[in-house]
Amino acid sequence: MQAFGPGVGQTVTELGGSLDTAVGSKVHLWAGYDGTFRDHAKSHTTKVGLTVSW
Predict the structure, then answer these.
(1) d(C-alpha 39, C-alpha 34), whole Å
(2) Which of 2, 31, 34, 50 is the most exposed place for a label (fewest CB within 10 A)?
(3) Does residue 5 sit in helix, strand or coil?
(4) What is the extent of the structural domain holding 18?
């Protein structure tokens, strides 16, 4: 398999983080972000979710 796209370049920065909060004893809301920044390309990903346990 061969992939084509921008090279990594000389400078690469990756950022990420997430938050999680309890809404009740069995319910959590969460959100996250991941970003990659290169010389000539950027990538952004966001995620949100709901976790329920019983």
Answers:
(1) 17
(2) 2
(3) coil
(4) 12-52
Cβ neighbours, 10 Å, residue 15: 10
pLDDT at 4: 81
User: What pTM value is reported for the model?
Assistant: 0.69
Tens digits of per-residue pLDDT, 4-50? 876 666 788 999 999 999 999 999 999 999 999 988 889 999 999 99
Q: Quote the distance between the C-alpha of residue 27 and its chain's center.
A: 22
Give CA–CA dist 17/19, Å, rounded.
7
Cα(18)–Cα(54) distance, integer angstroms: 23
State the total domains in the chain.
1
Residue 36 placed within a domain: yes
